[in-house]
Structures are given as C-alpha cells and as structure tokens.
Amino acid sequence: MLRELIPADLVKVQSANDWKRAIVAAYNQDAGMSPEDAKITFLKIVYRWPTFGSAFFEVKQTTDPNYPEMLLIAINKHGVSLIHPNSKEILVTHPFTRISNWSSGNTYFHMTIGNLVRGSKLLCETSLGYKMDDLLTSYISLMLTNMSKQRSIRIK
What we know:
It is built from four helices and seven strands; from the N terminus they run αααβββββββα. 37% of the residues lie in helices and 27% in strands. It has a seven-stranded antiparallel sheet with strand order 4-3-2-1-7-6-5, covered by helices on one side. The protein starts with a helix and ends with a helix. Residues 1-147 form the FERM domain.
C-alpha cells in the first residue's frame, strides 16, 4: 500500500518502516478532524507550494544545454517554472514581467525571456503549445489589467 500513498520519487528517501511510522503519526495527529476541517487544513498546506494552481506540460526543449532535454513546465499565478522531470526540482521561475514574447503551433511552444536583444529563448517541442500560449496570454492579460487598475487608483 505504500506505493499508493508515497510518490515514486520519494519512496527511497526513508525506509518502509519509517514511512509507516510517519504516516501513522500524521494520521493519529489529525484523528477526529471533520472532513471539512481536513479539506481546509490540506488546502492551507498546498496553497503555499510554489506549484499550487499550476497547469503542467511535458515538453522537449531544444535550446538550453543547462536544462535536461525533457522538462516539465508549470504555468501559474507566479509565472512560468521549468521543473526537472525526475527530481521535480524547480530549476527556474520566470515571472510574467520578464516574458517578452511567445508563440505556438501544432508542434511547438517558443518563449523569449528578457528583451529581444539581451533575452534568451526557450524552444519546446509539444503538441500542447496552443494551450500553453492561451494560458500565458490569459495570465499576462490579467496582470496587465490589474496593473492598469492600480495605476488608475493611484492617479485619482
């Protein structure tokens, strides 16, 4: 049952007996909690994760030798994160304010970070480029709308 409870990349972090003890201790700590309280407690924890609310895309990047060929890209309210597919480590997060251009097609997604002269490009092969493009467009439109509202409040 341990394989059903613990992500595969974390199983070997500690022994099976240590996992069992930790799970039982956590379970006993929250014994008697109502289902509603359990949901709220869960959300209060995961809300702090940097990938909370993300849409994840598996892509093959072809431009940066510092990153693995296969990457996970997470898009959320913080920006666009590049994640190592095996370790799940966040390699970098690009806030929307640093993304200057992007494009997509049936087989690709391209993004420019920084300006066109001194920026860097990330070229990705994916069949979901149009979804990534749409999501990025939505987040940046929201950011620009919020910035515009804040400016008009300051001017008044």
